[in-house]
Design a protein that fits this description.
The structure is a homotrimer.
Chain A: H1 3-18, H2 28-43, H3 50-64, H4 67-79, H5 85-99, H6 101-122, H7 141-156, H8 167-181, H9 189-203, H10 206-218, H11 224-238, H12 240-266
Helix pairs in contact in A: 1-2, 3-4, 3-9, 3-11, 4-6, 5-6, 5-9, 7-8, 9-10, 10-12, 11-12
Amino acid sequence: MNTAHRRETGLRQYAEVMTVDAPSDGSPAIADGLIDFVFAEIWSRPGLSRRDRRFVTLACVAAADADEPLEQHVYAALNSGDLSITEMRETVLHFAVYAGWPKASRFNIVVDAQWARILGERGLADTPPDPLLPLATESDPELRLQGGERSFKEINCIPFAPVRDNPYSGAGILNFVFGEMWLRPGLGMKERRLVTVACVAFQDAELPIQSHVYAALKSGDVSFDEMDEVALHFAAYYGWPKASHLDSAIGVQKQRVLAEATSEAAS
Amino acid sequence: MNTAHRRETGLRQYAEVMTVDAPSDGSPAIADGLIDFVFAEIWSRPGLSRRDRRFVTLACVAAADADEPLEQHVYAALNSGDLSITEMRETVLHFAVYAGWPKASRFNIVVDAQWARILGERGLADTPPDPLLPLATESDPELRLQGGERSFKEINCIPFAPVRDNPYSGAGILNFVFGEMWLRPGLGMKERRLVTVACVAFQDAELPIQSHVYAALKSGDVSFDEMDEVALHFAAYYGWPKASHLDSAIGVQKQRVLAEATSEAAS
Amino acid sequence: MNTAHRRETGLRQYAEVMTVDAPSDGSPAIADGLIDFVFAEIWSRPGLSRRDRRFVTLACVAAADADEPLEQHVYAALNSGDLSITEMRETVLHFAVYAGWPKASRFNIVVDAQWARILGERGLADTPPDPLLPLATESDPELRLQGGERSFKEINCIPFAPVRDNPYSGAGILNFVFGEMWLRPGLGMKERRLVTVACVAFQDAELPIQSHVYAALKSGDVSFDEMDEVALHFAAYYGWPKASHLDSAIGVQKQRVLAEATSEAAS
């Protein structure tokens, strides 16, 4: 597209995605980068829905510690109606697990403030929040661990679970992360995958990025083409170096999933 | 101290802290930076014990995504006897909560590998790990939440707890982080404080850094002078920009704790 | 140098680099760390110019999420005259690509504020910003991609470019990052290298750190000795664990560049 058309597309996309007009800022980062590239050429792409792009974006801006973009994207996601407040709050908890509680604490505060702003703008009273109890998962420690082992296998698409008698994998992973957190209602499995993939991509530890990209593809929750779009979208919101690593991991895991499908078809 | 003496001190400190000889590497980053500054002038300072410095260091290297330093520091902490394997494993879980599970996953793998290496070097068989069950905390959801509210107040040294009916603060903070994780045996409160302060300092969200520095000082678990040393040690392992922010937070929270002490003494 | 002389050197260097007096803060992190080490012993080293050190520093402080150091370093870089406002704004765009838009967004806001502060202090009116259009690069998508492939090879010093038909490498890398961003006037190639190396070092994905260190050395834009100084400077501003990884990558890539030079000389 030509230069003027590109700018126009960027401004229109910005307004649609962010639910407010684009800033009139001619600096290279904003005009050439954010409007002409991120909005004109990334958000406008058809391969991943705008709603799905929100989960990748929210994880990245909540990780990046820049208050204003976080406030703007939380507002936009809620104000557009793309995410309900229940989904947003559940996203904060999922993010807490994969990016740490301190960043999630600020994310949670921003959600409260932006939701209050939206309710104020619309003249609406807040509705009571979803009650925490009863939990959807077991209370008995042994049953929780068994549930955690089961869901660890199902969600990670692998036939084994880690050992119980280790604080990280027992009290943490089996008891809470897979025994409770992933099983909570309020957020779909695809959405949890998108938040997780974004988080493991910026956290950048070697095995989790491979295992979560694999599971997202293997489960079919995220298609191959959607995952390619995740890598591009992530690049814009977290930078090319980590996106390059994510892109490599996607290439490896696609091959693995395809090889397994071929092998299963043959047997 | 003069240049030769400083280098010598750095090499000796390196050997004592890392339990292996320093690398013979003349690059500025290693010779002028790591040996002459980090080991000669930071690890050697008396204001914070070598064992205490380990917890700050481990959190920083586990956050930094650099495999080799993480392996070296896990090995050194265990090989020196400064941390038991139980304490190290509990540190991984505590780190998972404050820095996210993906980085903790790698940390956990590194702990397994380095512990196996040490056992191999010593010709020892591994002892069975501490059993996970029974948990020290309640199983009933209502009782867990009540316990979480109580320990949230005690550990944070504040008179209130967050709302239950919010996934992040209810299912996350009250139910797991303060209802279970902080209350586990295997790691002392001071050690948990040191890991937490390091994590909130690199995560750098506005409120958690203030609240955890406050609570560490207010509780008396970390003395004012020790906290100053934490800031310097953290600077070496995570860089001056975040350390500078931590240092400011420490200044603010010392004033707050002192003002409260004065006010309590007067009343 | 002795202790008193070192403190004095640190205070003088601080004043020269930061363009304001050093804070009178006796805490270990500031006095023993920042003044005695970072300013007395790093900024004062001759192997990398003060202006060049600014680009490494700016990338690190913009990544580190600590507002005050970012404000101080942006102010100092502009106020000293080491960077023009055009170079600073272009640095923000380059940083956006390598560290993600959210952090760059805050960086951009800080640049605006500090530039306004400097103009105010000098009683100057702001000059109109450099107009964005016309772009220096092609608008036609096919020509942009061709340009992107060409500059990808030239800048990375390798004989191949990635596939177009992948969102990350096609729409992202070829179309924008190398088809447009790297080719913009307003910032020199050496400066872009320094920002990039700092960013890949803190992002710490495996391949980009190797490829960008290689290209910076291979192109001759950054000399071997300068790159060693980059590692030390980076250590101070982002911590030793990641600097240690950067230092290893530099060692490996120096060997590669030297081996290629030997092989080319022999043939």
